[in-house]
Amino acid sequence: MHRVALITSGGDGAGINSMIEMLARYEGIDLYGFHDGYDGILVNQPIHLTKTHCANHSLDGAHFLRTARSKLPFTKDGRQKIIQSLVEQEFECLIVCGGSGSQIAAKQIHEEGMNTLFIPMTVDNDVIGTDYTIGYDTALNHILNIIANIQNTATNMPGRIFMVEVLGGNVGNLALESALAGGCDLAIIPEYSSNREQIAKKVQAKLREKQSLIITCSESAYDSKDYQAGDQGVSFSIADSIEHLTGIRVRKTVVGFYIRAGHPSNRDAIIASKLGYFTAATILSKDFGKMIAIKKDAVITVDYKELDFSASTTNQENIDIAKNLNLLNS
Ligand SMILES: Nc1ncnc2c1ncn2[C@@H]1O[C@H](COP(=O)(O)OP(=O)(O)O)[C@@H](O)[C@H]1O
Ligand SMILES: O=P(O)(O)OC[C@H]1O[C@](O)(COP(=O)(O)O)[C@@H](O)[C@@H]1O
């Protein structure tokens, strides 16, 4: 039997239970989970994630394990404490499910003495070395439901400008993809200039072509560096500039944290299940120091050493399409 520890770290992502449940039911894996991310390894008792414990909850929006952000992995001393605790509890490996920050910590902990595997999970879809992160599709579906309703009211009461602000951290994937999928008129994303006047002029020009406009906006589209992940409300200041120039009131919706939970979409559940399945196989072959990732719709393993942390994680195809359609704040 392989005695394995698992945590979720950083923002939650719908679908992760499917991944955990798949691991729990795999022959030869003895799975334990800690609540509260990296901190939890030191302060919480491990929960035995058996097949029975996980049964019938794989599609729950509430995770088997609570997730958290933690100061510990930022220092070598903190990482050593994590490693020591896992060694004392005789774990062979730590599985970390999380986003880009959790990935850095998983790599460091692996290099400094404890086997790790990393599973990409975040609504931002901004993890180096994978095309996909668990939770992204469910989040997009939530946003699209909102955009669909806004399209209805835009049809019913024409002549308006709507602004939909979405999460995404420092990357514009959610705002960009939902704008493309939802037929929106502009996606304001942090990868391009957030100059308020320029954006307002672009909106004014678009009003000559269309009666109502729907704009998506990333939470991080600040014109200064004064942004912390999770800050909400930047769309209000952009809307001010648009109102000033066009004389039209902007109707705002801040989607916020609603998109991070709920039962997972099929895409999230099946990708998570497959990642769980291949993670189990990777554990059995003791092939540690890897991320179990998605490339071109297939599951692959990526050695931490191959990760290029300078690469962009914004979907390039979406950028190209949006540029050609003049949908960006560029
Ligand atoms: N540069 C880093 N070095 C070491 N650990 C990190 C680093 N960045 C993040 N972490 C760890 O991963 C956790 C989650 O990272 P965060 O960026 O908040 O979310 P996510 O992993 O979803 O991107 C942090 O709370 C911290 O414990
Ligand atoms: O939940 P918090 O701590 O307020 O963080 C908000 C951030 O979490 C996210 O929802 C997900 O980000 P991570 O997956 O990187 O943690 C971001 O879109 C958002 O900026």
UniProtKB/TrEMBL annotation:
UniProt pathway: Carbohydrate degradation; glycolysis; D-glyceraldehyde 3-phosphate and glycerone phosphate from D-glucose: step 3/4
Keyword Calcium tagged: no
Protein keywords: ATP-binding, Cytoplasm, Glycolysis, Kinase, Magnesium, Metal-binding, Nucleotide-binding, Transferase
Enzyme class: transferase
Family: Belongs to the phosphofructokinase type A (PFKA) family.
SUPFAM superfamilies in the cross-refs: Phosphofructokinase
Localization in the cell: Cytoplasm
Catalytic activity as recorded in UniProt: beta-D-fructose 6-phosphate + ATP = beta-D-fructose 1,6-bisphosphate + ADP + H(+)
The protein's required cofactors: Mg(2+)
Enzyme Commission designation: 2.7.1.11
Protein role: Catalyzes the phosphorylation of D-fructose 6-phosphate to fructose 1,6-bisphosphate by ATP, the first committing step of glycolysis.
Residue span, Phosphofructokinase domain: 3-280
Any single Pfam family the record assigns to this protein: PFK
The name this protein goes by in its record: 6-phosphofructokinase
Broad class of the protein's primary localization: cytoplasm
Superkingdom in the source lineage: Bacteria
